[in-house]
Amino acid sequence: MFFRFVCCLVVVWLISASDESCPEFPSVENGIIVIEEAEGQVLGTSICIKGYHLVGEKIRFCNASMEWNAPVPTCRLGHCPDPVLVNGKPSSLGPVNVSDKITFKCNDHYILKGSNWSECLDNHTWMPPLPVCKSRDCGPPGNPAHGYFEGTDFNSGSTITYHCEDRYRLVGTQDQQCIDGEWSSALPVCEFIQEAPKPAPQTGFDKALFAFQENKELCKAIKSFVQRLKENGLTMEELKYSLEIKKAELEAKVLS
Ligand SMILES: *[C@@H]1O[C@H](CO)[C@@H](O)[C@H](O)[C@H]1NC(C)=O
Ligand SMILES: *[C@@H]1O[C@H](CO)[C@@H](O)[C@H](O)[C@H]1NC(C)=O
Ligand SMILES: *[C@@H]1O[C@H](CO)[C@@H](O)[C@H](O)[C@H]1NC(C)=O
Ligand SMILES: *[C@@H]1O[C@H](CO)[C@@H](O)[C@H](O)[C@H]1NC(C)=O
Q1: What is the mean pLDDT of the chain?
Q2: The domain that contains 154 carries what CATH number?
Q3: Which residue's CA lies nearest to atom 2 of ligand 3?
Q4: Where are the disulfide bridges (predicted)?
Q5: Is residue 45 part of a domain?
Q6: Of 89, 110, 116, 118, which is best to mutate to test ligand 3, by the most ligand atoms within 8 angstroms of its C-beta?
Q7: Position 118 confidence tier, pLDDT thresholds 50, 70, 90
Q8: Domain identity same for 41 and 108
């Protein structure tokens, strides 16, 4: 291991300099670059000194054409990146020092999502992470499959109503309100209404048998049985055939 000093620019080699590597010595102002080998690759990790933060790739590697895969990063003043809050205001715009605490406020009509304060840590990161300011209005909501919504106003406080197509039933919340940028409930679901299975078409014989069973008196029963047979245009030949089928069905039932 050896150190290479170029007027305050430091590169720390954790590998032999004679190793096949990128020819250019990368260096970064107000920081160091540590060059090491990991899993057969030569890596360059850039680290800024206290009071500066890194802009660019922290870890770069020397690629197959012996070039670094990304440009040299820079160390900028401010221990953590300058706080950015779109549609809002941080209490300080930077540069910041380590352990500095800042607070956040969103513009009117925006709501803060996340923590309303953050601290610049030793490792150059903000903790808790920087929040975002979200509009209090909602975007157009989604449609469930086989469903749609009624309503054209998606602003804060407005309400929409969901409906399903014919033969579909709504499962979930039908009326939804836009509250602080979010719809009050999850998207409902349109569920297919299962129809009751249609009764199997009755044969003429079945109808006749039904007519027979409807009567309490044997004479009347036979009479309506024969009448129903005639109505259905069944001949005695066909009746025999139907009876054979019935017999076969009954036998099959007994066997199973
Ligand atoms: C290596 O990185 C350089 C710079 O980004 C790029 O131009 C070149 O194509 C890369 N080579 C390979 C083999 O990826
Ligand atoms: C950070 O520290 C420097 C020197 O210690 C000081 O001049 C500067 O005002 C500090 N910045 C903030 C935002 O406190
Ligand atoms: C941050 O939020 C807390 C409650 O979560 C509140 O008590 C506090 O006043 C807020 N601070 C600022 C600066 O808005
Ligand atoms: C920075 O430090 C904090 C607290 O020690 C830790 O939770 C966080 O993961 C660290 N972040 C990075 C990028 O190392």
Answers
A1: 84
A2: 2.10.70.10
A3: 116
A4: 48-75, 106-133
A5: yes
A6: 116
A7: very high
A8: no
Q: How many domains does the chain have?
A: 4
Instruction: Name the pLDDT band for 41 (thresholds 50, 70, 90).
Output: confident
If asked whether residues 40 and 102 sit together in one domain, one would say no
DSSP the chain: -EEEEETTEEEEESS-TTSS--SS----TTEEEEEEEETTEEEEEEEEPTTEEEES-SEEEB-TTSSBSSPPPEEEESSSPPP--TTEEES--S---TT-EEEEEEPTTEEEES-SEEEE-TTS-EESPP-EEEESSPPPPP--TTEEEE-S--STT-EEEEEE-TTEEEES-SEEEEETTEESSPPPEEEE-PPPPPPPPPPHHHHHHHHHHH-SSHHHHHHHHHHHHHHTT--HHHHHHHHHHHHHHHHHHHH-
User: pLDDT digit string (tens) for 166-221?
Assistant: 999 999 999 999 999 999 999 999 999 988 776 665 676 677 667 667 777 777 77
Residue 95 CA: nearest ligand 2 atom is: 13
Which atom of ligand 2 lies closest to the CA of 97?
1
In a domain? residue 85: yes
